[in-house]
Amino acid sequence: MRKFLAVLTSIVTTGAILLTIAVFLLSAFIHGEFVNQMVDSIYEENISSNITTSNVLYAEAEKAGISKETLDEILSQEEIKTYISGVAQEVIESNLNQETELNEERIKDLTREFYQEIEEKYHLNLSQAEQETLEEVTSSLVQEELEPVVQNTDPEINGVMEFLQACTNPLTYSILLAISIIGIFVIFVLTLKEKRFFHYYGYMALFLTILLAGLSAFIHFLSYVLAEDPSISISGLFAPLYQKGYVATVISLVLCIVFFLFHHLIQHRTELKEKVPF
Question: Which one of 126, 142, 255, 263 is at 20 to 30 Å from 15 when CA atoms are compared?
């Protein structure tokens, strides 16, 4: 009975650990490098082209004494991508929180930070009124581009966002982590008499290693296939996911080896004690 319960607990615990890792990677994917990768993929195609072709922005910049050449240079630098990245993160957060409007104050803050950076870099010598006008124009342009994304009513996309919201919820992560820790402890108690807890931990780690390696390789292959199609520019978005997956695979493999090694040492020591009980 103990062995059956240990095996059953191992299966449940392995599943909980896998889901915990998946939620962690997904959260890091959405709230981390994903945004930067996304901006790199769509910046030139969408947001940048609409901002750089805006007569309003160029007109206000000219009034402030910024030439077209200087503005073109500013809009081609990393600062603008960092700025758009921050705004894009606000869009993702709005969708995950099922909000229907962008946080205008937050976008204005990001815009202000952007102009402060380029002011220091290019020494534009803008007056407060000129900078505020440019900030307002830029904020409005960016919000016009991204507002439809937040107000999207497509049921399929809304369903995906609801799923992502549930997955990245701290409560979900906490519950899965608690189940994993409790499962590990239960296995320890059930197998303490035979001193075989590392045996079960080793097989759990082995299963996770194989599964993580397979999933990471599949995502890597998928990104490679997508990269072959010039009409698709999202293949790079998968890079942070499979890279973190490979790291998790290596960690799991190391744990697997360590667990089996400890199990072997414990069993060897137990056999010696049985042969020489003094």
Answer: 263
Which phi and psi angles does 94 have, rounded to 5°? -65, -45
* Tokens read off for 75: 């809009």
Other beta carbons within 10 Å of 88: 22
Output the pLDDT for position 51.
59
Q: Which two tokens stand for residue 11?
A: 């299966």
Give the CA count within 13 Å in the CB-facing half-sphere of 245.
Answer: 21
Dihedral class, residue 67 (left if φ above 0, else alpha if ψ from -120 to 50, else beta): beta
Q: Based on DSSP, count helices (H) and strands (E) in the chain, helices before strands.
A: 12, 0
Residue 179 CA to residue 186 CA, distance in Å, equals: 10
Tokens found for residue 31: 């709230």
* Cα–Cα distance for residue pair 220/232, rounded to 1 Å: 15
Amino acid making up residue 85? S
Taking the model in full, what pTM does it have?
0.61
Residues in the chain: 278
pLDDT tens, position by position, 251-261: 999 999 999 99
* DSSP H/E element including 235: none
Contact residues for 274 (Cβ-Cβ < 8 A; gap 6+): none
